[in-house]
Amino acid sequence: MATTSRTTIIAVTNHKGGVGKTSTCINLATAFARRGLTVLVCDLDGQANASLVIGKLHPSKVQVTIREVLLSGTPEVLTEAIHTDTNLEGVHLIYGSIRLLKIENDLRARVRPAEVLADKIKYLNDIYDIILIDCPPALNLLTHNALAASDYYLIPQPTGDQFGLYGMEDLIGTVSDIKAANPKLKLLGVLMMQHDNRKLVCKTMADTLRSKYSPVFEQTISHSTGVQQANMLKTSVIDLDRNNKVAKEYSKLSKEIISMIGLNDLNQISNEDDEDEEEAHSS
């Protein structure tokens, strides 16, 4: 079940690939850390793309990953799995692994197969302000574990893809089932990705999302090649270029989320992007 401590666990999930889950985890983690919060990213995706960017080691070289955490019977493995020296300052990481793709049968042998991660991650109560879980692009047992362990789930949804709405209905249905194990699980918000309000399809999709789901984040994320450039350089777009439009959008999104979940924005120096934005509007 989700923790009741000050640690907030957020599953970033959508069972479609290419919607921006990993980029959102990477850049939100950076933005939260810049605001003075302690942050852990747990990579639950067998592709381990978040680990490839955040981690200084290749996932194949890491002996203790989230797979070992899930299969181990001792909490000490969790401590061994956490890497504090990463490519993102202030962001810790539990690596993903391609071996996660073959873990489902092992999990199904457990008494409560969807609650294995929740039983492990509870030992991190009060150690981190925020834990972000990068989920696989599937409504499989790993995603179920992420949802059962989380306080909130966040859905990145490109507004240029009207077919994505069908997938969201499946996800909402899965959440309803998971709430039997984790009744505190709530939708933190739908995040409109690759959004361009000048395009009719994006405007129409935005209106549809706001009418069907609540909450939908006020902040949207634009398309930018800077995100791909940052990933190639193993960093966040925020660290690569703080003046990048998407970098500023993720910074503002982190502030919106902090306000929603009742955390304190500890590092006022990190609010320079917000101040720049306010100055631009007032000039």
From TrEMBL:
AAA domain: residues covered: 8-186
One Pfam family recorded for the sequence: AAA_31
Transmembrane spans: none
Name the UniProt record assigns to this protein: AAA domain-containing protein
